[in-house]
């Protein structure tokens, strides 16, 4: 059986877009870089840098000998602050932060936005907003699930140092066992 090259390339193009799901598109989110590659390995780096919209489970399936203990996939998908120092935002207490989500493929689940301390990967404020259900496949997605604002509370000095805290958008679709997240580095 022979498959035409053009048919195969079309199928691959469709498959590559089908695996893309969602990320924060504004404000600037953490992105993959050389430090991410160093701690998570070149295979995970290749997966994330070619499709930043993917899920943590896809990364987990590719853990190998190049993945170090410093690769925390469930903290900002393992993406490293050291690759993103130019993207740090400053949000004093009571700042209203508009957030835009670029959603490419919905999956019904739950979602929220919280402030997370990066040293412990613990929520220290929030959820600041939550959606349940989120990104439904059976109903139109409300506009306020992809374009919304959160108010940053006073964090009592916990986020005074760049890299100490992130605003984390977290979306979990249990029915398909997929979790997505994006992080915005900020100081207060």
UniProtKB/TrEMBL annotation:
GO terms for molecular function: metal ion binding. Pfam families: LPMO_10 (PF03067). Its cofactor is Cu(2+). Keywords: Copper, Disulfide bond, Glycoprotein, Metal-binding, Signal. This is Chitin-binding type-4 domain-containing protein. Residues 1-20 form the signal peptide. Belongs to the polysaccharide monooxygenase AA13 family. Residues 21-186 form the Chitin-binding type-4 domain. Transmembrane segments: none annotated. InterPro entries: Cellulose/chitin-bd_N (IPR004302), Starch-active_LPMO (IPR052282).
């Amino acid at each position: 059986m022979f498959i035409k090259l053009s048919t195969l390339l079309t199928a691959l193009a469709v498959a590559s877009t089908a695996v893309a799901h969602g990320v924060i598109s504004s404000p600037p989110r953490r992105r993959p870089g050389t430090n991410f590659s160093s701690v998570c390995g070149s295979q995970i780096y290749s997966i994330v840098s070619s499709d930043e919209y993917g899920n943590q489970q896809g990364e987990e399936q590719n853990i190998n000998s190049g993945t170090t203990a410093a690769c925390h996939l469930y903290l900002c998908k393992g993406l490293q602050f050291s690759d993103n120092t130019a993207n740090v935002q400053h949000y004093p207490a009571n700042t209203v932060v508009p957030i835009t989500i670029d959603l490419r493929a919905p999956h019904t689940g739950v979602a929220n936005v919280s402030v997370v301390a990066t040293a412990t990967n613990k929520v220290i404020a929030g959820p600041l907003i939550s959606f349940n259900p989120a990104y439904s496949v059976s109903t139109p997605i409300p506009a306020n699930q992809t374009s919304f604002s959160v108010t940053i509370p006073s964090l009592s000095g916990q986020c005074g140092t760049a890299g100490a805290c992130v605003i984390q958008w977290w979306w979990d679709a249990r029915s398909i066992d997929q979790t997505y997240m994006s992080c915005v580095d900020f100081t207060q």
